[in-house]
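re: the backbone from monday

yeah here it is again, tokenized this time
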């Protein structure tokens, strides 16, 4: 089989990759993905058949920079390094690649379609996915992007204390609590792409599904790429509501604690 035809006759795999393309378009349209900003990585192992597994790699194995024992033999679709979200949206197999983790769990190989080098933040994304498998969590997608209003709110210390921003954003509109019930974790500024940032993010993901990287962006996870995107979308809508009220000259009241507890009970949400 030619590596260029891996999506042919594989509707579920094609659907997953084109969902990434759809989300990439949303990120660009919202202004959250300037130039080559942001990354998406999706675990597609469950959609890989025996014929795909027999494919030869494109090029030699590449060192990840760390050993990820839970990812042995796993396959991922990843946005390419220096590739733009707006281009990935229209041509996902030209601006991203399918990779597999080698048996030593310390390298990856590009399998298809073209030798597009994955994002430079791949080690941190893969470290998160390794943690998912180790914990038995059914999350397959990770999305990093730069939502304008949320990043703006990370530029003041008062919003960086534990759960302060979560509570504020939940209070702006009921849907935020409903669709992002675990809230927003906070990671103080770390060098982008660093293993320190990855480790801090993994720590926050024990309690949250979306993590704010101070003065940088957010990192969200979900069972699929749409779920991860939706959580960022609802959180940023709340940030927009808050900032709109402030621009009109007043501090928004927000929902009261009693109102949020009532809604949590009604919809069986975490307290």
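seq for it, each position gets an aa:
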């Amino acid at each position: 089989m030619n590596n260029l035809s891996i999506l042919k006759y594989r509707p579920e795999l094609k659907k997953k990759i084109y969902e990434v393309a759809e989300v990439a378009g949303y990120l660009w349209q919202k202004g959250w993905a300037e130039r080559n900003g942001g990354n998406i990585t999706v675990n597609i192992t469950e959609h890989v058949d025996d014929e795909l597994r027999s494919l030869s790699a494109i090029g030699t194995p590449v060192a990840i920079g760390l050993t990820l024992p839970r990812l042995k033999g796993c396959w991922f679709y990843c946005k390419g390094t220096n590739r733009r979200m707006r281009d990935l949206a229209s041509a996902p197999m030209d601006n991203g690649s399918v990779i597999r983790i080698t048996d030593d769990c310390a390298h990856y190989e590009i399998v298809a379609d073209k030798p597009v080098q994955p994002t430079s933040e791949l080690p941190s994304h893969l470290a998160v996915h390794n943690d998912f498998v180790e914990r038995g969590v059914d999350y397959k997608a990770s999305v990093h992007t730069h939502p304008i209003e949320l990043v703006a709110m990370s530029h003041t210390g008062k919003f960086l204390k534990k759960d302060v921003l979560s509570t504020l954003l939940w209070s702006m509109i009921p849907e935020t609590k409903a669709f992002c019930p675990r809230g927003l974790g906070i990671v103080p500024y770390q060098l982008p792409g660093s293993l320190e940032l990855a480790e801090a993010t993994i720590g926050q993901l024990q309690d949250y599904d979306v993590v704010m990287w101070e003065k940088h962006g957010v990192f969200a996870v979900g069972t699929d790429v749409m779920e991860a995107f939706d959580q960022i979308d609802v959180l940023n809508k709340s940030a927009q509501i808050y900032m709109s009220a402030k621009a009109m000259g007043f501090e928004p009241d927000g929902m009261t604690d009693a109102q949020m507890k009532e809604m949590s009970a009604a919809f069986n949400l975490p307290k």
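The domain at 1-119 is CATH 3.40.225.10 (L-fuculose-1-phosphate Aldolase). The first helix runs from residue 11 to 29.
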